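Q: Sequence in, structure out?
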Amino acid sequence: MRVLVIGLGDIARKAYLPILSTRPDIELHLVTRDAQVLDHAAKAFHAASLHHSLADAIDGAAFDAAFVHAATEAHPALVRTLLERRIPTFVDKPLADNLAEAERLVALSERQQTLLSVGFNRRFAPSYTELRGSSANLIVMEKHRHRQPDTPRRVIFDDFIHVIDTLLFLAPGAVERQSIETQVDRGMLTAVTLMLAGRDFTAIGSMHRDSGLNEERLDAMGNGMRRSVLNISEQVHMDGTECRHRRGDWTPVGQQRGFEAMCTAFLTAVRDGGRTQADAIIATHALCEAVTLHAERSIERPLTASGTGAR
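A: Exactly. Output:
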């Protein structure tokens, strides 16, 4: 299988290429504008060919699949080019930093009858997948950052999107109600909380961008039990007593964080003629847009009588 990898930043070099380059069924072809990075990656991951642009790579060449790991703002143009050539495409989250563009790309994939997948690794992380289908009726996910306030759209689409997608993945039923709270200081998003609810369940996601530590925690509670996952690796089960479990030190990071299973799922879908999971992609990006607009509207509100900005 001839696989094109576009963009060779940290996520590609640390998470994807170590997995793809060890598969005997894959022939790697790399694309990046950075000549030094391209040369290093070629040696480290045994690439079959090197290219400085997507146009150069696809000129007269055929590929079975493509992985897009470029910056978020470059996703739409790259994905559009690949789909127009009917190359099954995997792209890091988000597909785009706005709902309208995401909808256009999903629609294009369906018109072209070409697989489009978005990289939500938590859907494949063992510690998280084990919680799906459990008896939990309260799901709480926290993902915090140390001193990293940023613009609402960048925070939500580049980071909080993981919280949103995980809540949708683990929700035991259809979401019927939602509630959003955001805190914005001088145009920078500092905190966000999202509540989703449906028949007999509630799912809550929160992120603080000016917290004391970079951390992630997932809790699933119900039926006399509580299951927690800390930083995607350490599991805590509570059924009257506490039991902690951490995956073995020799468990590869790519396996522990779901990247290996995610790559396998995409490549298997390519071989089997899998279809784009359009509804799931749109649902996640639609919630991202709703949360972003909530935060952006708070920026636009006039000062209160006390002279402080609305929160």
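The mean pLDDT is 92.
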